[in-house]
Amino acid sequence: MRKDVGIAGGGVSGSLLAYQLRAKDYEVTLYDIVPKYSKPCGDIVPKVYEPPVPWQEKFRIKRFLFKLDGRPISEISYSRTKWVVIDKWEWINRMRAYVRIERPEHVKRHDFIIDAKGPYDMDREVVYTTRAIIKTNRFSDVAVFEFDTKYTGFYWVFPSEEGKLNVGAGFLEEKNSRALLAGYIKENFPDAEILDLRGAPISIGAPKRKDLRIGEARGLVYPLSGEGIRPSAISAEVAYRALERASNKDEFEELMNQDRRLRRIETQIAVQRALLSLYRKSSLPSRRKLLETLMKSEVLIDAYLEDKVDPQGILESLKGVKDGVDFRKF
């Protein structure tokens, strides 16, 4: 007998899990406060993962610029695509179209209820981010990270599609990221036409619990970059296989914890949280030294861009940057 599954939250992990279950004729109800998905983020995914439900690629990124306290530190270019900009809204809403969606207050009994609500239980530390999609004559295909040692976080400028940029800000010390972003856009893109402006919290700390949770609800966001699409999608794949085999909550969690891919993601996130904690406790000169060390090493930058700043990931980057990489320090 097929299980009856309820899923709270219809973002990346919730919608992908719901779609996979419905494709196998499970009874699935997706609970969400809105009929269509529209959460803002970078919509960027390293080109190392393909989801079971394909997404549309809007732009491919090969070049990256790192800036610190207003000055460029390094630039790295790849002969192959390093990141892809995806149409995340279209992808998620396409999956949601195959699933019954109810409002959260209408929740009923299910064999399993999976929590995919993201950070909105607010049971962990978050950073408040704002991003704008702008149209500008200063469009560039270079993805820019701009760090300020006074803060913990960064400004970003990513190509969104031809002629449009995704410009954003997120700093732990400043909840009003919208005001910081407005000043940054005014200074760097005076001709900008703001096409869309949205804000959202992103998980930085670990949640108080993980059981029956997937995606960002489970804490699966890389805190040094804010990237959560890939780990959330992978957690949905793992949860789908676990639900096929599990007969109760404990078996589900055991199967989740046994998965090799999920264990590595959680290890990488733990390493990033430790590095973030070290940075926050450091003096301004020490922060500057830490960031310059990262930005002046093509190996560490490569590991950062794929969120694999752990010993295994750094070794992979050491081997991977030998060919097809142009690195320049300013």
Under the CATH scheme, which class? Alpha Beta
Supply the CATH architecture: 3-Layer(bba) Sandwich
Under CATH, the topology can be stated as FAD/NAD(P)-binding domain
Unreliable stretches, pLDDT < 50, 5 or more residues? Answer: none
| Total strands | 15
Q: What is the percentage of strand-forming residues? A: 25-35%
Indicate the structural class.
Answer: alpha/beta
Please give a structural write-up.
There is one protein chain. With 330 residues, the protein is α/β, with parallel strands linked by helices. The chain has one domain (4-329): FAD/NAD(P)-binding domain, CATH 3.50.50.60. Helix content is 34%, strand content 28%. The protein has nine helices and 15 strands. The strands form three sheets. An eight-stranded mixed β-sheet has the order 14-10-13-12-11-5-6-15, with helices on both faces. Helix 4 (229-245) crosses helix 5 (249-258). The longest helix has 22 residues, at 260-281. It starts with a strand and ends with a strand. 41% of the residues are buried. The model has no long low-confidence stretch (mean pLDDT 94).
Secondary-structure map with pairings?
Blueprint: E1 4-8, H1 12-23, E2 27-31, E3 44-46, E4 57-61, E5 63-68, E6 71-78, E7 83-86, H2 88-96, E8 100-102, E9 112-115, E10 126-135, E11 142-147, E12 153-161, E13 164-171, H3 177-188, E14 193-203, H4 229-245, H5 249-258, H6 260-281, H7 284-295, H8 298-305, H9 311-320, E15 325-329
Parallel strand pairs: 1-2, 1-9, 2-8, 5-11
Antiparallel strand pairs: 3-7, 4-7, 5-6, 6-15, 10-13, 10-14, 11-12, 12-13
Helix pairs in contact: 1-2, 1-4, 4-5, 8-9
